[in-house]
Amino acid sequence: MRLFRCDNCGNAVYFENRSCVSCGFRLAFVPEALAVHTVQLDADGKRWRRLDQQQFVYRFCANEKWDLCNWMVPAESQEDYCVACRHNGLVPDPATENGLRRWRRIADAQRLLFYSFLRWDLPRPTRAEDPEGGLLFDLKDDEILPDGSCQPVLIGHDEGHIVIRTAEADDPTREQQRAMMNEPYRTLLGHFRHECGHFIWNRMVRDAGKLDSFRAVFGDERADYGEALDKHYKEGPPPLWGETFISYYATTHPWEDFAECFAHVLHIVDSLETAHIYGIALAPPSHSELRAHAAFDPYTILDFDQIAEVWIPLSVALNSIHHSMGERDLYPFILTPAIQAKLKYVHGLLTRQV
């Protein structure tokens, strides 16, 4: 994620900022510009203009009224919601404190997801544009059964329809689930990226006629998914699975392997963009294998090997810093040559090289 500057005073501002802490001007993310800009009310008191380019006129996303979204919509657009929020179906009740708090945390992760989609111009039709396979998010609360017990919502994907469990916006719930599943890592953003990996597979592999190249890397997705899932939970992963799979869950089925790799490509590239914008470089004495410099914008790089060459030592350094704070690894994954080949395929797909 990039850093931005206030168009009024030049102070550094961040993707999540609603106003400049230095001069107090209102900030908004403008999807067409892929940037956070300083905005001010137009003379009509309803529309907004960018300070740097007065000819562009906008409205805030309709979810701005709940302080959920600071993204803009062109004033002439017929859409009430921004390019991220218009994909929402069911949402938490913003009239309740619990619902609004959870929705805000989920919305933060959702906008980070869409930033990557916009950078690569990935397919993102709404349900209105594609009723059978458009991207739709239902943010669902757990069901309280008549006996008072709780029926947790299952996170999942079905032909563009993605369900996100709102309870996982609460750290204790999400951490409990992570521990129960024996996962090294679990975040709301990770859920969005993984489930959207299935959507991208539909659009950019299956529907694009690229099944042969996919099978050559990930295996045959025609294997029965239900049987594969049962086997995974009954027998566990195959021996030495870490040599060829990015995660335990990736071993389940080629669909899950692809979705996990898609999520990790987004993790890696967006984190490297942050490292790049901060000018991070590693030069440990007597450890040349750990030297790296994030001297490029990874969203513009076509060679995934170049990305991995910087990411691997950077992730080692980040993990070491976390250890010094008594925390778990920030990136608890090992990129073997076989795993890098899968990530390279996904990256090639996103950059239209496959």
Blueprint (SSEs and pairs):
Layout: E1 4-5, E2 12-13, E3 26-30, E4 35-41, E5 48-50, E6 57-60, E7 72-74, H1 97-120, E8 136-140, E9 143-144, E10 150-151, E11 156-158, E12 161-165, H2 171-180, H3 188-206, H4 211-218, H5 225-235, H6 254-277, E13 281-282, E14 292-293, H7 304-324, H8 337-350
Parallel strand pairs: 8-12
Antiparallel strand pairs: 1-2, 3-4, 4-5, 5-6, 6-7, 9-10, 11-12, 13-14
Helix pairs in contact: 1-3, 3-6, 6-8
The number of distinct β-strands equals 14
How far do the termini sit from each other? 25 Å
Instruction: Provide the gyration radius in Å.
Output: 21 Å
Q: Per DSSP, what share of the residues sits in E-state strands of 2 or more residues?
A: 5-15%
Task: Give a brief rundown of this model.
This protein has helices at about 95-120, 170-180, 190-205, 210-220, 225-235, 255-275, 305-325, 335-350, and strands at about 5, 10-15, 25-30, 35-40, 50, 55-60, 70-75, 135-140, 145, 150, 155-160, 160-165, 280, 290-295.
